[in-house]
User: Fold these one by one.
Assistant:
Number 1:
Amino acid sequence: MIELDNVSKYFGDTRVLDGVTGKVNRGEIFAIIGPSGSGKSTLLRLIDLLDTPTGGAIRISGTEIHAQHEKDLSIRRMMGMVFQKPAVFNATVAENVAVGLRFRGASKSEIDARIGEALDTVGLASYRERRARTLSGGEMQRVALARAMVIEPEILLLDEPTANLDPVSVAMIENLVVRINRDLGTTIVFSTHDMYQGQRLAHRIGVLMNGVFSQVGTPREVFTLP
Ligand code: ADP
Ligand code: ADP
């Protein structure tokens, strides 16, 4: 579903990614594990078309992205992304969730129904008309997750989605990740510096180290010493 082919990214003279190669299969949960500063966000941003690689190719369902603007727009619509810092704007929870649907020109009744479903899923149905900025960090992150899901993305990208959250919120988000993957078949790529979280959630893991995937495999393959 996602192919990374010798992907590199430099910021000026700083080499962040230096030949990342690997594949994410359709329908799997894939963890990018690496220490802080190893380039996890950078890699996710390249996949999400928020930044362009310095070299190499990224293919999604066989189509190279960053190569043709027209195709990139339709591919971007297949993806939802949740950022490390819960990003909600100053409006109601419902408005925050509706954004992607409005851009897609959905009808009001469809938007209402989908917001309801998404908020049910993340356990925030009763918060629909609350101002999003008054929620806790964990709740805001669930709003961000509802916003990413409501467009029914084929690929969900999560950049350290549980960093800085309390343990109850971490467990909730982890539970949602597993359920979204299992019930909707969504391909999920998330980053974490927590190898235990990778082990708990991921079908396969890529270990990002010194600008490359030093290992790619199942948790058992990656964490068992040879
Ligand atoms: P991680 O998500 O693994 O913590 P990042 O992808 O955020 O790592 O960052 C990797 C490195 O790239 C860091 O050294 C960071 O300072 C650098 N970096 C990230 N974005 C930029 C940018 N826009 N300009 C310059 N350097 C950047
Ligand atoms: P458009 O292509 O006209 O920007 P979208 O529905 O793709 O419409 O985007 C709606 C809003 O959500 C925009 O502000 C866009 O930046 C943001 N967005 C869309 N897709 C993503 C994504 N995969 N990751 C992050 N933000 C996104």
Note: DSSP finds eight helices and ten strands in the chain.
Number 2:
Amino acid sequence: SETAHIRNFCIIAHIDHGKSTLADRLIQKAKLVDDRNFQNQILDNMDIERERGITIKSQAVTIPYTSKNGQNYELNFVDTPGHVDFTYEVSRAISSCEGALLLVDATQGVQAQTLSNMYLALEHNLEIIPVINKIDMAAADVESTKHQIEHDLGLDAEHALLVSAKQGIGIDELFEAIVERIPAPKGSSDKPLQALIFDCHYDPYRGVIVHLRVFEGRIKPGMKIRFMNNNAEYEVETVGVFKLALVEQPELRAGSVGYMIAGIKTVSDVRVGDTVTDAEHPCEKPLPGFKEVKPVVFSSIYPVDSNDYEELKDSLEKLKLNDASLVYEKDSSAALGFGFRCGFLGLLHLEVVQERLEREFDQSIIFTAPSVKYKIHLRNGEEIYVDNPTEYPDEGKIESAEEPYIRASIITPTTYLGAIMSLCTEKRGVQTNMTYLDEKRVELVYEMPLAEVLFDFYDKLKSISRGYASFDYDITGYKPTELVKLDILLNGKVVDALSQLVYKGNAYERARTICERLRDEIPRQQFKIPIQGAIGSQIIARETVNALRKDVLAKCYGGDITRKRKLLEKQKEGKKRMKMVGDVELPQNAFLAVLKSK
Ligand code: GDP
Ligand code: MG
């Protein structure tokens, strides 16, 4: 059939098992870039990805491949992120593929996200090829990794491929396995167009760029297309494929992956998960699309300069194109003015959104303390959900409260078992299961409040297990809790944007930590600034930022003028990242700093 020589697959694995490095080898083999211009983890092209060494966005690429028997293929593959916050990126990639390379690091074995990503691939009936990576390393244990693939994953390890993505070992065999074992896509280019929008991005020069997997039919310039979700119609300007750069093509046909530009002015017309069809000959029904993702962490963002509100709104809209999991609505605060209440998939997601708004859209913003969504039972019988401390009802109206819980699954070498169990207990966790996967590895299952995981759980887990424990979670539901609203006062006044809902048992410690961190973050000013933590009218913690002793410039007395100017400029730079709250300057990251473990 016409799609016989197309293969669509994704690369999935636990974080750091080598997905992006393997993608590099595939791209290099296909000579999409010459060796001189090659940089490692070439698909991780966002600044944040390169700095943090992690993949945040799924990236699609099309490469040619000529098999041993001389047949030419078109391979479309997607490199995916491994972090638990970005599972949504993985599930969307999976929906546009027929197969998956499931990488397992031979020095680490099967980890928490190896399992969860495999289940995602199985749910979508993908052909899974197990790939054992990092076989070049001295610590590689291929036999035990094979055992884990059979035992923990229930996959046949006999035909697992042995690879070193870094050194390029086993890549030829891998290519052959891809074309032999992954099924060709179904579909016919004579049927009416049916294409899935699996991603999108905004280009300042070319506008909205829609990423498509064509399931049926064909799409080409001049054609009138319709988005099935809202019936918006546009004329296609160009289509093409991802070869690192966008490469124009005469058309995209059934089975293929590529992009479309259609002069889309209304950014909100485009929805990831929507089906694109031919406006003149529409298909009967839309493709299944994606499960709605529910945000679990909420925080408000405000422009540092209140005049930038409209610009921030515009930026959020454009960012949402490329990050369909971001949700937001209007919000306002007495202290910070107009802004947006946003929902995120986790704390890392929140940080990524903050950085992308700053770097890609040049926005100067301030985030409020993240919160989960609480369920509150009122005395009058009503039941409400609250994720914003400013909407927390009066104590007197509240009957009881519940907070979201997760089922946390932790895989660890037995050596760290004791320390991890104490950490989970400290975080109000209750153990529900413990399974020895083999002599050296245990899987622990805990019920834990999501709010505890948001703080420093992940960092602590990594540090007490020297990076060896892996962690995954699902939200399970609500359980009773005791909540208080913790207010923070600066200069004697409550700053609404700094209030937090906290578990009663943690309130004193939290108040103390917040006050200490704020003391360290708020720059000294001409006057003394008291910082207080309070529940209602009761002050439970206090710190002070002392007044500036001298003008900073005084230090430069007699010094040269350029140095003085530099200092002034630096201060101005700093100012941009400060928000005036009453007469106190609050640094942009004061809120996030509160959350980070020391
Ligand atoms: P990802 O998170 O799955 O995308 O993993 P990366 O591709 O970013 O790789 C994580 C780290 O493992 C990087 O430092 C890579 O250089 C290293 N790495 C990946 N594959 C191999 C391999 O085959 N051998 C060795 N020795 N290191 C590898
Ligand atoms: Mg990666």
Note: The radius of gyration is 26 Å.
